[in-house]
Amino acid sequence: xxxxxxxxxxxxxxxxxxxxxxxxxxxxxxxxxxxxxxxxxxxxxxxxxxxxxxxxxxxxxxxxxxxxxxxxxxxxxxxxxxxxxxxxxxxxxxxxxxxxxxxxxxxxxxxxxxxxxxxxxxxxxxxxxxxxxxxxxxxxxxxxxxxxxxxxxxxxxxxxxxxxxxxxxxxxxxxxxxxxxxxxxxxxxxxxxxxxxxxxxxxxxxxxxxxxxxxxxxxxxxxxxxxxxxxxxxxxxxxxxxxxxxxxxxxxxxxxxxxxxxxxxxxxxxxxxxxxxxxxxxxxxxxxxxxxxxxxxxxxxxxxxxxxxxxxxxxxxxxxxxxxxxxxxxxxxxxxxxxxxxxxxxxxxxxxxxxxxxxxxxxxxxxxxxxxxxxxxxxxxxxxxxxxxxxxxxxxxxxxxxxxxxxxxxxxxxxxxxxxxxxxxxxxxxxxxxxxxxxxxxxxxxxxxxxxxxxxxxxxxxxxxxxxxxxxxxxxxxxxxxxxxxxxxxxxxxxxxxxxxxxxxxxxxxxxxxxxxxxxxxxxxxxxxxxxxxxxxxxxxxxxxxxxxxxxxxxxxxxxxxxxxxxxxxxxxxxxxxxxxxxxxxxxxxxxxxxxxxxxxxxxxxxxxxxxxxxxxxxxxxxxxxxxxxxxxxxxxxxxxxxxxxxxxxxxxxxxxxxxxxxxxxxxxxxxxxxxxxxxxxxxxxxxxxxxxxxxxxxxxxxxxxxxxxxxxxxxxxxxxxxxxxxxxxxxxxxxxxxxxxxxxxxxxxxxxxxxxx
Length: 758
Ligand code: GLN
Ligand code: ZN
Description:
By secondary structure, this protein is an alpha/beta fold.
């Protein structure tokens, strides 16, 4: 019996090796074999880490050059029609992921409620599946060569695959169930032939509220899959919440094990008796795969003992709650982190050791001297965290609990009249989302300044030079509302976290967001407050360079929270409220400095939604309240914008409306105006800037294309309500893509405006 298992390991590399290799290849500075070499080295290294930490079931097929859902699409041969003409497999793979000059990329969306993004499979009635297991088998061979005795193959389950797919012809993706199941059956047979024993099949879809008919399909699927290749041991795994409904079904199928998340799905404890009766193995996710705090081993072992009251000890495999993809790699490069804070943390590598120690403590009658020492150290660290003085700030707690004002003083209908008059912008006003391309020079200047290698003056001069260029460029193309370009920001959350109290930063705590893009989330370890203004001097400087309106640029409290690793000793709602109060002070300082349009980005508002309906009300209540508190200081003539980067608003449109922002800019470029229709149907009254081109792709959209797009938007919402903008910030793009794109965008607006006046 495997004693422990890891659900998946991060793949970008502890020094982000894969990222740099990919980006060299994309910019044609190396050929693909260089990427392959890096990939092989990383896989080897990650397996070794798991082996060295005494992990029984080491994850295979969790590596990907870009995204595992995309790899699954390739594995199943479900390549959308438009990419089929590309004969080179590597070229085609990256065209699907990122688009190229002639191919629009596939849609990308957030993986459940994480900040990881997957490539959405595109299915239609013509889709066929054809197994293409070459990559998987090659990885398996490498694992065997690396001396991994029991490689565990990780797969995305068929039902989750269908549930996360979109259809481009309105057909139900589940119509493909039979065909897909046949393909999976063939895959499992192939794996069995290749000598595989353990297969982890991820079905996180069932951690949501699912329809009865999908639960019925679950039964059909696993009755079949667990019998086609009888020597395989299937571990059907869910995470991010409980999945009691699915468990009730799966215990009546011949699968080997269920993998459940006991960190984010406490209710899974209710399934224990059913699992015990079924005699199945239980993979118990007890080490948090989504947070960075050190495991409280005493508590975890106590939890496992409670589980063992129901399920035989021998049938329990200790596991991570989900893939470690969502945590940074290791603390070993953290030289600057406060040593007290550091002692409270565990990243992926350290979590492997935690699993090992938990396994030993839980299964052995006695610990070795070394293990005892590790155990004692764990207890000490957790006690120190509970009582640390660096965490609790009474002044902050008092101010935040005294907050009374949530609403703005003037209702929207009145505000917008005042703003339109004061700000004087036309219908179809053009703007951008905030950032302009981050050049190597900017990054170097920020780095040098941080290291103390250049003075404050030199640094500021460099940033201001960049702001000057951004302003000049925006004026030259004729944009209506300008931005300063965010040159001083490495990241929209990190920037604010660095200036707020209660946050700590890692040097190397990178987590993959999509493709080669990584983020380095701050750690919120203590009470949050704002010692000084954070953005005012930059925005005021930029405003001094133009007669047009300069938009102030802030990150909202919910996004700061959702993109940070948040302390787990206080409710998230309370932490959000502390941040909101700090941001409202910044809004006030900006308007006092004559910045009359302020954007408060809530890019991550949606990803904080709980997966289960029963938990949504609570989240919406405090998230909404936090956003509103953060802008409650705005006067009626200060226009509040917000920005959100996704295309799935169906369920939350009324909450978005209740945020009461004057203008919202959203991502629609990859989903046409389907999204906008939701705004219309909801009777959404505020102004909307539906992104009219996709900034995630290097492609420059043409004037004609954008004219057509604007006209399509006008069919849905009156032009008085529309703003025209790209669908997200431009920091990841190059100037030679941004310049012509924005020029074309403004030209398109001019054409449409002119046509409207003749
Ligand atoms: N203002 C930010 C930017 O332009 C917003 C980024 C985002 O929404 N992800 O980069
Ligand atoms: Zn965005």
